[in-house]
Please model this.
Amino acid sequence: MKVVILAGGKGTRISEESRTKPKPMVEIGGKPIIWHIMKLYSYYGFHEFIICCGYLGQVIKEYFVHYYMYEADSTFCLDSSKTVFHEAAAEPWRVTLANTGLNTLTAGRILKVRDYIGNEPFLLTYGDGVSDVDIPKLIEFHKQQGRIATITTVQPLGRFGGVQIEPESNQILRFKEKAREDQAWVNAGFMVMEPEVFAYLGDGSEMLEGKPFERLAAAGRMSAYRHQGFWSPMDNMRDKAYLEELWESGEAPWRKWQ
Model:
């Protein structure tokens, strides 16, 4: 399955960093947070990525264009203008970087990469949050549920969009973009989508988390995978400091790879 990463937003709440780079390129432990997300998927054997670029997308492109050079030892022969890259551990990744527009909303970004996805199920997540979610278990749950869309839900402190879940069947009954303090389960990303989801995205002029998700929930075609483990977004500098602290401690829960 291909992994689609939404990486086009402006990240205004972390503007200290996002003035010069898109939020997915803000670093945790010296690596962009999007690298951490890709490493998690790759750990589970998912190596093909479609990155939906937008704001300062050229920064993401430049990173991957020069990725091997950054990772390898290099010898620069100044007298002959030759550069020699020595052996480096290369990631087994196939990365498609798609220009999906500066102001395109999330549903529109997914529609713009439909040809790259093809007529097959795909994984979808945001480029600014990390988790220790078990991706194969998520996919197996999605298959068992037999619905069009499955989102990973978690129970943080209550500042995110809320999800109302039917306890027995795990069907999402209602999706609200704005949270109330009494709403417990929220969308953490790490989603699985069937190709039928495109019929619910409209003309792409809406946020995925708005009308498209509401339409899926109203039709009974959306499930919640309840993740009891770690998840954290990186919305602001406090979040970044928290993730940095976890990484530097050597106890980052999302670091499943060695």
About this structure: The chain has a mean pLDDT of 90.
